[in-house]
Amino acid sequence: MTQALIMATLGTLFTFFMTSAGAATVYFFKREPSENITRVFLGFAAGVMIAASVWSLLIPAIDMTEEAQRIGWIPAAGGFLIGVFFLLILDSLIPHLHPDSNETEGIETNWKRSTLLVTAVTLHNIPEGMAVGLAFALGVQNGGEYAPAIALALGMGIQNFPEGAAISLPLKHEGKTSTQAFIIGSLSGIVEPIFGIAVVLIAQYITPLMPWLLSFAAGAMIYVTVEELIPEAHLGEHSHFGTLGVIFGFIIMMILDVALG
In sequence order, what are the residues at sequence separation of 6 or more whose Cβ sits closer than 8 angstroms to the Cβ of residue 167? Predict the structure, then answer.
């Protein structure tokens, strides 16, 4: 378990680093990127999360259950739905604001716009951190086979780069200094190592529930993808740029998982 903890720490710190790298684009861009570039980035993130949910989380959950001589789809479907409803509840309760909107979601609050924007991205990153941590915990159970977990960490890190940019660039456009926008954008990803390490620490005590937890993370990620990333990638109108971003992200994550897994 110590090795899994070290690997999960490194993996989630990598995803956090990529969020920070994306946030650092505020030092190089004087203006926000064009709508088409934003659509490609958001679509790419959505495609990565869809593929990761299937190959890195749901399929391993089904395989684990069937190896234990149980019905594979039960924890896959059950955990998936629990993850969806968990994010739905968080989405309904925690105040947050999306970059393309001026309407606050969640309970009423007087939080600043920058805080609300960071909260929105932080909600995305919770299931991502859990997914990476669970993947490394699963590697322990598979005799130290960490390649699939590394593939997942790489995929999450790649899609975190545009997410970091998507939070920091609008903040700079709204009047924050480059350094303030960078720090705020970076901090949106800090929950990934926190939740990733946390699930590794408890995984050894709840091994029978691992298929449910993997599916839970998949459901939470798909909720974020369908509820927010894909609609934002199209911004209320038909967009080939957003669609191609989804397809490209899906293919990249699929290749990473199959090639390294």
Answer: 23, 99, 117, 118, 121, 184, 185, 188
